[in-house]
Description:
The complex is a heterotrimer. By secondary structure, chain B is an alpha+beta fold. Chain B contains 19 helices and 28 strands. Chain B is globular. In chain C, 28% of the residues lie in helices and 50% in strands. Chain C is globular. Chain C starts with a strand and ends with a strand.
Amino acid sequence: MGKITVNLTVNGRAVSQQCEANTTLVDLLRQGLDLTGTHVGCDTSQCGACTVHLDGRAVKACTVLAAQADGSNVVTIEGIGNRDNLHPMQAAFRQCHGLQCGFCTPGMIMTGIELVNQGQADDDDSIRAGLEGNICRCTGYHNIVRAVATGARAMKE
Amino acid sequence: MVEKSIGQRVLRKEDVRFITGKGQYTDDINLRGQAFAYFVRSPVARATIGHIDVSDAESAPGVIAVLTGQQLAKDGLGTLPCGWMVLSKDGSEMKQPPHPIMAADSIHYAGEPVAIVVASTYQAARDAAERVVVDYDELDAVVDLATAQDSDQIYPEVPRNTSYEWELGDREATMAAIAGAHHVTRLTLRNNRLIPNAIEPRAAIADFNPSTEELTLYTTSQNPHVVRLVLTAFIQIAPEHKLRVVAPDVGGGFGSKIFIYSEETAVAWASKRLGIPIKWTGERSESFLADAHGRDHLTDAVLAMDEEGHFLGLHVKTRANMGAYLSTFASSVPTYLYGTLLAGQYKTPNIYVEVDAVFTNTAPVDAYRGAGRPEATYLLERIVEIAASEMSLSPAEIRRRNFITDFPYQTPVALEYDIGGYDASLTKALEMADWDGFESRRGEARARGKLRGIGLSCYIEACGIAPSKVVGSLGAGVGLWESGEVRVNPTGSVSVLTGSHSHGQGHETTFAQLVASRLGISVDDVGVIHGDTARLDFGMGTYGSRSLAVGGSALSSAADKIVVKARKIAAHLMQSDEDSVEFDDGVFTVKESNRSKTFQEVAFAAYVPHDYPDDLEPGLAEKAFYDPANFTFPAGAYVCEVEIDPDTGVTRIVKFTAVDDFGEVINPMIVEGQVHGGLAQGIGQALLEQCVYDDSGQLMTGSYMDYCMPRADDLPDFDIAMTVTPCTHNPLGAKGCGEAGAIGSPPAVINAITNAIGIREIDMPATPERVWRAIQQAGGQ
Amino acid sequence: MELVQRVIIPAPRQAVWQGLNDPAVLKRSLRGCETFEANAAGGFDIVLQLKVGPVKASFRGEVSLTDVVDGESYTLSGSGKGGVAGYAKGSAHVTLSEPEPGRTEMRYRVDASVGGKLAQVGSRLVDGAARKMANDFFGEFIRVICDDDQVEFILETIEE
Lengths: 157, 781, 160
């Protein structure tokens, strides 16, 4: 399989990466760009640990080819905030103890932001429905739901 | 600030790296020059292996080597051991067929590794694995637990496919109690097989350094020192002082990352053999096939009662599915972690339990969150629920009549409970759940065409394992103490080293709170180090809800030693005698004087000992090893309320109340999180999760499309609270909270469902189909 | 998966029997079949592209004919390995009779099973896929031996 060149913007930075035609976006991020905050938890697009934003919408990066992201704007967990300047959704996860082992957390946060952006974080039932595509084995979701609701309020302020 | 951070909801110190994507999990680590591994796995469940042809794979692009189980066997490595010897009724040792690191001549479960392909990229290794040709001479697989003992013998040395036939308790007295009872309740049930599914798949990077002959293994482990010990002592991968095991951030464990597995071991061997770093990251499909599974019991039980519903005797006969091999701690799960818990919260005077451990051609089964205790609790709380109905007593009343109230209490199944307050938990749970108002809610639901039910469960667990002498006498191959070290740095900040391992439990915060409180310093000034055999002496790791009760107690002792030494230094600095120096809130003071030294000043003096006691060594670092005096006994009462749609059979949990007694709590926020997670796994077992093999041993539930994991919209908000009876034998009064939710919740859910439908029994998982059929049957009667 | 069907074919029994023993006919009848060649062992080597749900793989395998009663019945069994995709096994016991001249009744019992990743990830799809494959095979076989794409035949499912 031949190499291709993919040009995209990742976390505000223009990047040009050589990769195989069948390289997935998550592999490009993790292996090509060393953005290891985006995780891989399954091989059937079910767990959501690899959720990133592609042109403003949440996608599972294990199911998007790097080639499909050519010319796109990708934002990962590393791009929404940092230690000194947390995104309100990041801060809410900590505040509400919405994480334990932390492995699903980047995907949860990216999905949480998506739910707010899509107006699906208005009540607990919508949040729970909206998190259907993200699996957490640690928290029982109780505190994740609170975190997304808290993050939603903070994002609107 | 001395005691202030204990009991506080301190936000977790570890969170910042996780929420910003800066966690460092095993797969996030990349070593210079690393190669990638992919395993060739058997597609069949039982076979003899003929020729393995690797020539085509070896010549595939990017391939560095293809190593088979047959080569591994020739290298003289040991097999994967089971670390707990269980004896049969007749005193004979359990039968333990050799568990090869990779199969060499025969296959015993689908997914068993046969060869490892090492290549320059992951994709190349994976592609080349397809080119390995293995001749399998397939045999009829033994899959069904119910018939396995009368099926084809899998191992020549294991008649009836039975590893051991274990017993505990007084058979004669129990049978006599049953024979003479006013009423007996009988129950046959299955505890469904589960797949742990930590969201981070297992992974390993082995890095052999030919110049120092040191081997470093980064791996997803709950107990890196135990991994090192087993790899050295049993498998002879490398001498213990030449082997470093690092378990960095680990994405969930739930028991599944305790064990010494084929893949991590084979990667270590391959790295040493090839002299290059090798990385293996499991795919989820591999987790399903080859992580140790959980539960899988078939049980018949008889509970005998007098006229008033007092329990007189309990006889339990269980067949436990071990899978194809005895995994690391598998033998202890259906015995010492199960049979010993069958007293529950009740003063049943006579208990007799028999357990047959049965081999099948399925993945090995070992400890999964709760490990044996959920199986015991499910059995007990189901049979008690049915007994209540048969005796026309309310679920709460039959339990209250039998509660143990005087402590310490010696059960007829070996354990001695130090303390508990069962009625307090139950009373609080019933009140929070508004049990008394249930009938009106049921009526209101009926008016909407819904079936509403309520269920109760009172659990106990034995945690904080455990006194080494006791477990040693019961067959454990290891001691179960824990180590802790408190290193005070010259500036007064503190590094805490613990043999416990955090993979979501928040030790970096809880242990910091504990030590900060003891030393009167800020939580921010305490760093917690764990998970690296090169950084601390030894540790037994995290499982069985033991980290705080055992690991925390070790740190408590180490902190005490720090204060003892620091007090001597402070006394010298203040020209006083030790007995006159008080330590409070981080300040040493000479009684009835204005002389004082801060903890930081004393720490500095310890490292710059210009003005220092003659008879004292410089430095301020102390270690402690803590071996518990007994298990701890967390207990609680759970109430589940469900609403069922009779048209679809869908069960919705409308309210779940959990009241737990974990003894003293250091960080309630973290403890509540542990309860939430446990509840989700228990509810998952009750409603959703089921591992299925077909009759040829093929795993039918091998992905998240077929194995139903609890998702956010499957679960309710949880109402939780705590009652406290402090543990009597450790310095913290703590009992452990990690497994409770998974132990207590399944029977509460099932009791609620049987209550809603008005039936005696239903199997887990109570899927919509099962519930719908049960409703049809009940309606037809 | 088990499937028993009966079909009435507008062709004489001998023609149907010949077709059942002709590699070229069998190959044409089997969708996705790339190779179907007689081998030294008296069976046939085949290469078949199979797609079940998310798993798509090229299967290499062998087909053998056993229990042959000339002109009346045989068992056609095949097994194939699809590398990491796992394996598939199937057999069809076929019997022929000629209730009236020029019309053949063909009954067949098909069993199929899969293993490895195909079972693990695609199990819930395998039954449907195997049934469709059997239907496609026998339907195509009838069209081939009648040399008529529009041929009408009566097919009855007895067990599934």
